[in-house]
Amino acid sequence: MSATSMMGTAKPLEFQEAIEFSRVSIVQQHELLAVILCSAIEKGQAEVQDFRDFIHTLRKTDRYDHLLVHLFPIIGAYITRFGSTEGMNDLSQARELHQTICKQTDDDVWALIYLRATFRAWWIAEYSGFYMDDFEGIPGVDLDVEDAERTKLFLESAKDGAFDFLLSIAADCKATDWQDPVRSGIRQWLQRKSPALASDPVPFSDFFQHALMLRFEVFIDAFISNLPDVLRKLRTEEDEQRQLSHTHEQDLDLERFLIIIAYSYEGRPGAAMSFWEDPDSNLAGFLSWASKRASTPLVSAFCEMLQSLSDNEQCATAAHNFLLDEGHHASGKMRRSQSLTWSQIFKELWYFIKKIQEKHSPAQLTYRGGKPAAEQAETEPESAMMLECYMRLMAKLAVESETARLKLLTDQDFHLVAGLLELTSSMIPPRLRACAFYVLKALLTRATQEESYLMWKCVDSWVTGAYAVQPNRTAAVAQQQEKAAIMETTLKGLGEGFEEANAFVQFLASLVTPAGDESSTGLREPLYDSLPFPDDLGTTVRMGGVEPYVDFVFRVFAVKSRDIHDLSQLRVLRLSCLEFALTCLATFNEDLIIFGSESSIAIDTAISAKDLSTYIRFHPFARVMEWMFNDKVIDALFQTIHQDATEVGNAAPETPLIQGILRGVEVMLKVLELQATYLNLVRPAITLHPEQRQQPVANTAYASFEDGIMNHLNLVVDLGRYCGIGHPDLTMACLKLLEKISTSSKIISAWNPDTGRHGHRNKAIVALEKNGEAEAISISLISELTATLDFNREADAPNYVIKNHILDFIYECLKAAPDQPTIAHLLLGFSCGINALKVEPGGAFDTQASLFHSLLAIFLEVPALEEGRGVRGWLLNLRYKVLRVFQLLLNSPLSSNMVIEELRSTKFLFHLLLREVQIQPHLAWDGVDAAGPDFLVTTSSRTYVTFLSMRALSFEYIGRELCSVSQQRIPVVKRQIFDALGGHVQGDDNSTMNIPNVFDLYDFLAVDGLWDISNLQFNYFKDLDLTACAEQDPDLGFQYNIRKVREVLALKLNESRVKGTVVPQAELAVVEREEALVIEYILFSNRQKQLSLLRLRVLKAWTSLVLVMLESNDFKGATKTSFLLQALQAILPSLERFSADSPSEAFELARLAKVLLFKLDLSPEPASAVDIGSGNIGNLVSDKLFQLFQICLNGVGKWTDSAELRTIYYSICYRYVTTIFDDGHAALASGRNKAIKVVALYGERLLHVICDDAYGGDTACQTAAVILLSSLVHLDGVDDSDNAHVIDTLNRLNFIGVLVDSLKGILAEWLLILAEGGSEPAEQLTKAKLALLLQLCQAKQGAKFVLQANLFRSLELSGVFAADPELEIDGNNTRALEKHYSLLVRLARIISAAVLARGSHNVLQGRRFLTQHRMLVMHTLKRSVGIGTVGSAHNSNRNGARSGVGGGARGGDPKSQAALQERIEELAEAFMLLITATGFLEFEDDHTPTEKPRPTSILFH
Asked: What is the mean pLDDT of the chain?
């Protein structure tokens, strides 16, 4: 970078980024090399000359930067290796090196004096280990002199800045963005000689810090163990200097050493245990020695060290026990005890509280003031720092150790909470007040609800001035208005600056966190059913609740934070505010509102709050949500999220920068999630009680949170950028928020194109395309998707979770707006227009380098099977989510053509079939056998659910692709697809691979009852109402929300306790087991419903695929027959199983069976006869069709609920019955007797069901039932027997009578059909009924029953033969007239058949009919031979004819006229048949009619 700046030319951003990346990489490589070299030295891979060369390098080092820090682990390793008893233990060699290192000559010149001092001090500390008490001595060497020289050299090194520089190294290595003002102040106080570390954005890695701290640990142990005299001398000199100085000035090397220990052991409790585990060790002795009779600076440093040695519960408890060791206390004025103890800390804290309250001046607590006044003799300059360190120690021990926390809360001699609040009420520095708040916050760690409520009351009293010392106030209690003013002033003062505001906000966040004893244990999750503060909080002073505190936090977040110019402080402060907001949002349980309205639980008594209304109105959630619509808050929130991408990329995950962005995103997610609850339920409840709330939040500029998002388009860009920076938590949160934004209907409508003429492109797409952001984001997503999976951590691996979130985001975004360009389309690689997509030539999609192709790679490369574990759910889940994205793209007209062509070009279909797993009886699912009775309650069942979902998508895609290939006439691909579905795929080397065929993949219908369980009996939860827990999932149907079920169980227990039903301790285990059983049963029920729905979905997809194959295949002859039979054989067992009890599955199978049956070529032509009628195949066809016939009859006989399914059954039975009458195939014809027998076997019940459907109900089902009855009547009468079973049964069921009786209204019904333009269903039903009557009349028994049902009387009452058809129908409507004549033809044929079937029994009725309708008969006979006119020609010369009946073609077009003439001729033939059968003409000639026809006004021409 310096080179480019020296050139004086501006370089492109990409070039600068490349240079910066190279520089950072070099620094990181140098760090790695340092760690590697350190490890090599530790393993004995270095020679003494290497050490000498390294020393020579150190002498030349002239700059304190990262590269120098990298050398310090090497320094420590070399010194340990060659200069200590822990290394080579070669004293002679060590003495030679000692002379070299510690020589006092002019040629020993170092560029950095403090580096030489540090190196010498470290060397002496470890080298002195050779000369401990058990050392035997060296002949001719005065060890005392050498010891004195080493001590002198060490002290000189200390004066030259050895400890100063070591402190710099330790502190700079662990430099953090987190603001720790106290630690920074201590470092600034102690560090005076070393320069600041050269700024570099490259942080030290964790492994380097660990390596360096290990070396520091060795130095610390060596110094304490090997140089005890030096330690004592340092302390003695400091004490003497302090006593002689009026300003208490002194050297601070011992304090520096303690802070070095603090940095070295911080965050390493395992190493810190070396101070606590052995009370006789040198380190433990050092702790005791350092704490005794310590000066104020030393006590401060000691407290810092002690808190760093307390990073877990064990260490913190040990530190607490150390402080319990009481010493002797002097009387009179404050004096230090022999050792630092809790008692001493409390006394000193109380002493300073009183001193401060007496003086009312912060001047007493300056860090480095001038000469103290006489009255300040007891107060040293470092007193404020000491108090800060005391409180930091208290806070740390309270957080880590419950024993210490309880000691601090319950100490009888010193009431810590009251003392701290009194201290904070005084005039003290902000940093000291902040430390007090941190202690109060720490005391709330693991606090009970009672402790939390007491703390709230103390704090609320504090802000109203209860702890302030005001001597001039009267004893009377201040008025309410005065206290409210004090509260406002106090909170306003706390909001100034950083330290106090940040500490108090964090304290408030702890206060609004639910108490530890509220969190449920065992099966019950936290219910969050209570307020985090007492119900009566503040009611004596103001409106109850915590709204003033919420307002304070948001004013700090949105307004006060703008006054902070230090960027690091601003980030920390806003992060604290967001933590508070997120806690308030996350601990509000919206489910309680639902339970209150939809559950039988008495919610007001079941929850811990006073009642539900109080909970809703006073929970801080409501006030936080109100602030979320404030324009300043939203601006500050987006400012927090919008950060420089480079800085974000270089930041560590735990830094305030990353954490602030993460919390901001999480807050937005929570607001979007809970917004509807607030707007629709909570806010209306609050407005009903305006007298119980504070003033509304000002400047609520937005009606919804989405309105604020829509004004910040850059949010989408920022979220997309952050997805690729390598921080898993932030990436996942950003993807979730992108998903929420992309699926919000309000945002979609605002950002998507207008419908008017001046449409615009999606605004989010435009924002992402600016500066190539979309391409960069897409590349980062590709990087995440293509990252190698961790097969050890599996689904818990961060990169796997990120892959899932990316796929979910893309899917939900496409699903929300499938027919409009979205940011998902853009990121996938498409070029987005206003309402269209395209592929840019040479673009990422065109070159197969897009995100879309990364999804494709995941599907093709991720395996689903693992040896020994079977199908792996975590791997299968990725493939499923990819496939459902492809499905959305294929279903959308925007992308369908492009995607299907791209998938075809990659032979995706064949890869899909190659990777398809066939379900085998012992196939494991995540290592669990599916046949186990408890399979559905295991997590492995989710794998099975995912597998079925993916199988359905696979079948749907294959069917779509086969349709597309057939329609586009691509024979080669079509043939390859059929081969693949037949079980053979051709490889790239032309080899054939065998795979499961389409019928092998019909393996997903599990055996019924495999996972059934008996009905469970509950005692305690027998009346449990889970209605409020039910949710409708669009893909998985009706499901119970397990989280809500757990909450209902918890509320049920709470309700019982309130009612006084206390569960005895002996029965508690029983209740818990029953509770676990309820959860397990609900989980089982959910999974069972999921599997049922998915099984049906897969079945639909499979049957659709087979139907597509049936329609698009080129099979001929035996090949076609074989394929149809194979399909029929595959489905018959399942159809038999589902025919009556599972109508949904049965419908899909029956639909396919119907098509297969109708597709079978059963015609009697010779070619087909060879295929069907010959040999085994004919018998097989006959057997399978008869089996199908039986299954359908069984389904009908059991009265299947679905009318649609019964319609298909009727159609199949009809087709079979008509088939067996085909004399061309002996094998099929042999089934007639079996069919007759099976119909008789099912008996009256079967016909009763069919008659019911034929009588009424769905028109399609009614028609099919009538047609089937017609075929059964035909089957019944095949032997022309008088005792036909079907006809007799129909008569017993009175169906024939009802059918004949329906003829009375046939004319009106028919005219209505014609008036509606020829309603095909109704017309077909009428024709079917007439066909059934004709079939009945063609049988002797049937004709008998029909005539006995008064056929002629019904026809007479209908009037259908009484009028001239050309007067009933508009003559201009030739088609309607033709249809009317067709009705007359059918009725005439029925009459003729009935008369003929009965012979001479009904001749008189036939003659009477002809006599009554003589004029119509004569008119028809005339028209049939061309006498007179018909249709439009006839009506054109007539007036008064009816018009407008029927909706068919009008006019006399030749085709319609020909059809009409044909119908007239057919009617004439029917009349002539009846005339002949009855001998009507002969009868007329021989007999004179006894009754002349009545005169009529209707004239026939």
From this structure: 84
Contacts of 908 (CB under 8 A, 6+ apart): 856
Question: pLDDT per residue over 1215-1240, tens digit each?
Answer: 988 888 765 566 666 778 888 888 88
Secondary structure string (H, E, C) spanning 450-482: HHHHHHHHHHHHHHCCCCCCCCCCCCCCCCHHH
Furthest CA-CA distance within the chain: 171
Locate 411 and state its tokens: 């100490």
Nearest-angstrom CA–CA distance, 507 and 486: 20
Reading across the β-sheet that carries 870-871, which strands appear in turn? Answer: 865-866, 870-871, 924-925, 928-929
Contacts of the segment 467-470: beta carbons below 8 A, 24+ positions apart: 467/418, 467/421, 467/422, 467/424, 467/425, 468/425, 468/426, 469/357, 469/422, 469/425, 469/426
Report the amino acid identity of residue 597: S
Q: Mutual orientation of helices 896-905 and 873-891 as an angle, nearest 10°?
A: 130
Asked if 919 contacts 1004 with a C-beta cutoff of 8 angstroms, the reply is yes
Contact 1193/1248 with Cβ under 8 angstroms?
A: no
Query: How far is CA 1135 from each of CA 1123, 1188, 1241, rounded to the nearest angstrom?
Result: 18, 9, 21
Rg over alpha carbons for the chain, rounded to the nearest Å, is: 47
Question: How would you class 1470 by CB atoms within 10 Å of its CB: exposed for 0-12, middle for 13-18, buried for 19 or more?
Answer: buried
Phi-psi region of 517 (alpha: psi -120 to 50; beta: other; left: phi over 0): alpha
Instruction: Give 402's Cβ-side CA count (13 Å radius).
Output: 4
What pTM did the predictor assign?
0.85
pLDDT for the residue 1380: 87
Higher pLDDT pick, 1500 / 169: 169
The two tokens of residue 573 are 């402060």
As a whole number of angstroms, the distance between CA 765 and CA 824 comes to: 9
DSSP track, 1131-1168: HHHHHHHHTTT-HHHHHHHHHHHHHHHHHS-----HHH
pLDDT per position as a tens digit, 184-196: 888 888 888 888 8
**What are the residues whose beta carbons fall under 8 Å from the beta carbon of 488, sequence distance 6 or more?**
548
Reduced to 3 states (helix: H, G, I; strand: E, B; else coil), residue 1326 is helix
* Cβ partners under 8 Å of residue 83, min gap 6: 94, 97, 98, 123, 126, 127
Structure-token pair, residue 89: 């233990």
| 564 backbone dihedrals φ, ψ, rounded to 5° | -95, 120
What's the average model confidence in pLDDT over 1335-1361?
89
Structure-model confidence comparison of residues 61 and 7, the more confident one: 61
Out of 386-395, 644-653, 934-943, 1483-1492, pick the least confident.
1483-1492
Neighbours of 1260 (CB within 10 A): 18
Length of the chain: 1501
**Measuring CA to CA, which residue among 1084, 1094, 779 is closest to residue 935?**
1084
- Checking if the pLDDT of 1167 tops 70, the result is no
**Cα separation, 1193 vs 1206, whole angstroms:** 10
First to last CA, the chain: 112
Between the alpha carbon of residue 1071 and those of residues 1062, 1063, 1067, the distances in Å are 12, 8, 6
Please name which of 1337, 1252, 1261 lies closest in space to residue 1303, comparing C-alpha atoms: 1337
H helices of 915-1014, in order, are: 940-967, 971-981
What is the per-residue pLDDT across 869-897, written as a single tens digit (0 to 9) for each?
899 999 999 999 999 999 999 999 999 99
pLDDT digits (tens, 9 = 90+) for 374-430: 343 345 667 888 999 999 999 999 999 999 999 999 988 889 999 999 999 888 889
Q: Which residue has the tokens 């005392």?
A: 144
Q: How far, in Å, CA of 795 to CA of 254, rounded?
A: 51
d(CA 1495, CA 940): 88
Q: Indicate the SS3 state at residue 1030.
A: strand
**Contact residues for 1339 (Cβ-Cβ < 8 A; gap 6+):** 1273, 1276, 1277, 1280, 1284, 1287, 1397
Among candidate residues 502, 417, 515, the one with its CA nearest the CA of residue 467: 417
633: nearest Cα among 726, 685, 728, 701: 701
